[in-house]
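Forum > Structural Biology > Help requests

Title: Can anyone predict the 3D structure of GNAT family N-acetyltransferase?

Hi all, first post here. I have the sequence for GNAT family N-acetyltransferase but no way to get a structure on my laptop. I'd be grateful if someone could post the structure tokens.
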Amino acid sequence: MSEQTNETVEASAPELARFTSAHLQQALGLSSELGWPYRLEDWAFAQGLGEGWVLEQAGRLIGTAMRWQYGHAFATLGMIIVANEAQGRGYGARLFDALLEDAGPQTLLLNSTQEGLGLYSRRGFLPIGEVHQHQGVPVPGLPSPELGWVRAAEVSDLPMIDELDSETVGMPRGCLLQCLAQTGRLSVIARNGVVTGYAACRRFGRGHVIGPVVAEDATHAQVLIEDAISKLPDTFIRVDIPASSDLGSWLETRGLKRVDTVTAMVRGTPPQPSGDARLFALCSQSLG
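Reply #1:
Sure, ran it for you. Structure tokens for GNAT family N-acetyltransferase below:
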């Protein structure tokens, strides 16, 4: 009887199911297996904002994939994981294709590891840049009078932050900003009562992550990041930046070493930023 049961389990085909909060604990196990330093709270944050699919085999989670919707025309894709022992069997492609079917013809964005480039390219995704992951415990910084430009965001600032972010990234991310305001800290640079830059900082992984960061120029972005660092002495910090941000060398001097590079990709018409501000740091590689 035992041998027959084992054969049945081994022969059972993985089944697709919608990703729900009931899958979070096993999803944490998958990311830990790959060495991703996610906490259960990080998975819950991502799952609460998006939707996705899982692959289950004999009651065990062996894969995940998620999508986050921004307005009617844009979405980001990520958290695409397959258990080590289940890789090489097309399960990642099956999960990814389920995301694509859900998404339809809208523009899709993602950040790809080297291993994922082939899968995404075959499905019409094109490279549009790179994202550099910087992390570490910052070295002590010198006092800077420019930190006086930054203050904690107030509730009345949220509509302006939302508008600035939408103009800068070219797609509406109000729900993401609301969650960031609730789970972390938002800081702003304001001129004559108008928000011209902002940064979010929250618990994540081994410490804290700073991002998104939106600012008029690199100097203002550095001040926003420096302000967040100053409130977290001796704390592990992660910042994911577009390669074009011009912040990499400065982050290195602050003790945040570049540890990884991923390829930013898009299928469809990329979002069109407007206004004078730029995106200097991402919320995360999955959420954008």
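The longest strand covers residues 60-70. The chain is about 30% helix and 35% strand.
Shout if anything looks off.
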